[in-house]
Amino acid sequence: MKRRVIAVFLLFFVATVAAEETVYVTRTGTKYHRVSCRHLAKSAIPMTLSEAASRYSPCSQCNPPVLDRVTSSAATPLPSTNSSTSVPSDLPSLEAEKAGLERQVATMVARIQLIDARIAELRRGAGSSAPVSAPVIAPSSPRPASPSYSGRCQATTRKGTQCTRQAKAGSRYCWQHGG
User: Fold this and answer.
1) CB 46, CB 24: distance < 8 Å
2) For residue range 8-42, what is the model confidence (pLDDT) as tens digits?
3) Residue 63: CA atoms inside 13 Å, Cβ hemisphere, count?
């Protein structure tokens, strides 16, 4: 009896936690998404899964959790193992359900690993970058006397390196940097 009470409590807890999971919607869209979905590039409005599921449908690209599937499977009790009248036909359905759940877990584990890798990548990038400020331009050599300067473009790229393009005839800069 104590085990059943604990099992029922855990199932209820899983259903409640799943309903409180955060998903994201766009300002103008009709679908809800995972945080990593490519459709959230322009806007991402967080909301609970239960709220999103009542107003939006799930994205087919990122496959966010579905409230109906989570709560219905969590609320469905498993057949009793104490019963001596177990129906052998329950075995294939339970094995199929188990296989499906194992696939979901494997997918979630793989997704977690991808997210962890992305977080680590962003932290490495954020830790090494200084605040963006105006580029410091070193004093350049005087302009050549002749207006027919040709050679390498004298512009500085966003990375802070010299542009590798050839300057246009009669200019110090390439076609992209105002030559």
Assistant:
1) yes
2) 655 555 555 555 788 889 888 899 898 888 888 88
3) 5
Mind listing the pLDDT tens digit for each residue in 87-122?
A: 556 677 777 778 888 888 888 888 888 888 888 888
In a domain, 95, yes or no: no
**Residue with structure tokens 């050549």?**
144
Give the C-alpha separation, 168 to 149, whole Å.
Answer: 8
156 phi/psi in degrees, rounded to 5: -105, 130
Q: What Cα–Cα distance (Å) separates residue 72 from each residue in 75, 81, 106, 161?
A: 5, 21, 21, 58
Asked, for residue 15, whether it belongs to a domain, the answer is yes
Per-residue pLDDT, 128: 53
Distances (CA, A) of 10 to 5, 77, 158: 9, 11, 54
CA angle 71, 76, 82 (to 5 degrees): 150
**Please, are residues 138 and 156 in contact by the beta-carbon 8 Å criterion?**
no
141: left (phi over 0), alpha (psi -120 to 50) or beta: beta
| pTM for this model (two decimals) | 0.32
Which tokens go with 54?
């009542």
Average pLDDT, the chain: 74
What total number of domains does the chain contain? 2
